[in-house]
Backbone:
């Protein structure tokens, strides 16, 4: 509650900023009490102190004990522009905007693990009208339940079991994909080849040079891909929005990886006789991308991916400076190694120097290429220092973004989903007793200013 007493001595202050609420104060207003000679405004007194200081000095400061949206609402009530906040308070004042953007991003990530209400499910799956009419069909009742089982692992105990099964098949598929390339897990291809001897006759020999993965890996992949196919079909049929389901990046990886298995089967059946058929196995590497499906089961992976999205500008800047430094130092080391006699020169061209500059700036240092002259060593030292500085500068921004998303996620997890909201109700004006429940600004004291 705010009580402003005797505004007449401050008309010269209130008229400094025209077209605002204080500049339009007259005794004819409903807020004026002729008995007490006061103007009554039921507003936040802490913000009004900064508003009054703005009329006095022409500088608007932000109180740190007031939330940003509340400060903006108060400024809008008094007719002031929030862009007039002083530069010293601007960063502190705009923090709430970054917070609101972060909360909006977390809402899109769908990190809420609590079970939604029936009305929210009806709105999500598009049968809200049937829900209010009471004419919900059996399929409309089953569709959200099936979707929750296969897409929301934390919605129920049954969904957790299906989620564990899905993670199990993902891990088995990735493990099988890796193990079948081990030499001990492969069997030789035995086939008869006709060869011509020195005397002109022919004979049969066994060719064991080529190998194939053990047959057990084929059956493992068949079982895993049968589960993936069933999962994709069920999720597609029960999805609330088919277009969003198809356009989802994780789903694109999922059905392309599953489709590659069936394409591989067809090629092995009808194109195994081709000489370049082994090259087609390279495209099966898309199956390793199934690891991104784990984002449905881990909120930490979602936050990590969102951190890289939010830090796209910093990552682009990092790559730009790396490319710039690589080209510069590759050129310098090429010419530096040619100044002195160097019979063991590793830098025969600038493109070879690009690899050395990349390895040096990223502090990897394989040692396969190294400068031999003193000038080249000096260039290498500068390249290493520049790489450390280039990589170290954008990293704190990325770490800060991850910490921001993670802290807000933890706060949302502890915040109750349903909160009691107290709506302000207009009450009849009661006699005011200055002191405990009221803060009075007697503006007669401003005469000394």
Residues:
């Amino acid at each position: 509650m705010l009580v402003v007493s005797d505004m007449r001595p401050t008309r010269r202050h209130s008229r400094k900023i025209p077209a605002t609420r204080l500049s339009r104060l007259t005794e004819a207003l409903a807020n004026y009490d002729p008995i007490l000679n006061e103007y009554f405004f039921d507003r936040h007194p802490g913000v009004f102190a900064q508003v009054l200081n703005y009329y006095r000095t022409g500088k608007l400061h932000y109180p740190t004990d007031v939330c940003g949206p509340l400060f903006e609402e108060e400024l809008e009530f008094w007719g002031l522009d929030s862009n007039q906040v002083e530069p010293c308070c601007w960063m502190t004042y705009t923090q709430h905007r970054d917070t609101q953007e972060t909360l909006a991003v977390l809402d899109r990530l769908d990190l809420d693990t609590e079970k939604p209400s029936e009305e929210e499910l009806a709105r999500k799956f598009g049968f809200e009208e049937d829900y209010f009419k009471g004419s919900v069909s059996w399929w409309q009742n089953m569709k959200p339940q099936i979707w929750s089982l296969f897409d929301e692992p934390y919605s129920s105990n049954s969904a957790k079991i299906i989620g564990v099964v899905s993670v199990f098949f993902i891990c088995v598929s990735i493990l099988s994909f890796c193990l079948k390339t081990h030499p001990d897990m492969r069997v030789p291809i035995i086939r008869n080849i006709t060869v011509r001897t020195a005397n002109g006759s022919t004979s049969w020999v066994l060719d064991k040079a080529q190998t194939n993965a053990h047959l057990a890996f084929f059956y493992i992949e068949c079982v895993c891909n049968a589960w993936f196919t069933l999962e994709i079909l069920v999720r597609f049929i029960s999805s609330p929005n088919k277009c969003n389901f198809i356009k989802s990046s994780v789903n694109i990886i999922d059905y392309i990886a599953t489709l590659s298995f069936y394409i591989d089967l067809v090629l092995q059946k009808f194109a195994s006789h081709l000489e370049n058929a082994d090259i087609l196995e390279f495209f099966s590497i898309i199956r390793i991308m199934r690891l991104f499906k784990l984002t449905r089961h881990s909120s930490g992976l979602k936050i990590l991916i969102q951190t890289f999205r939010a830090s796209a500008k910093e990552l682009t800047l990092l790559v730009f400076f790396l490319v710039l430094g690589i080209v510069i130092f590759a050129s310098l080391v090429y010419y530096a190694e040619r100044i002195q006699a160097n019979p063991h020169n590793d830098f025969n061209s600038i493109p070879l120097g690009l690899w050395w500059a990349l390895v040096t700036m990223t502090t990897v240092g394989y040692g396969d290429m190294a400068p031999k002259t003193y000038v080249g060593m000096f260039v290498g030292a500068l390249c290493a220092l520049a790489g450390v500085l280039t990589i170290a500068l954008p990293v704190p921004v990325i770490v800060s973004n991850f910490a921001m998303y993670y802290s807000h996620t933890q706060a949302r997890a502890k915040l109750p989903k349903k909160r009691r909201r107290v709506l302000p109700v207009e009450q009849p004006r009661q006699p005011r007793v200055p002191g405990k429940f009221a803060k009075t600004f007697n503006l007669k004291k401003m005469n000394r200013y």
Summary: The chain has a mean pLDDT of 76. The first helix runs from residue 11 to 14. The first strand starts at residue 2 and ends at 5.
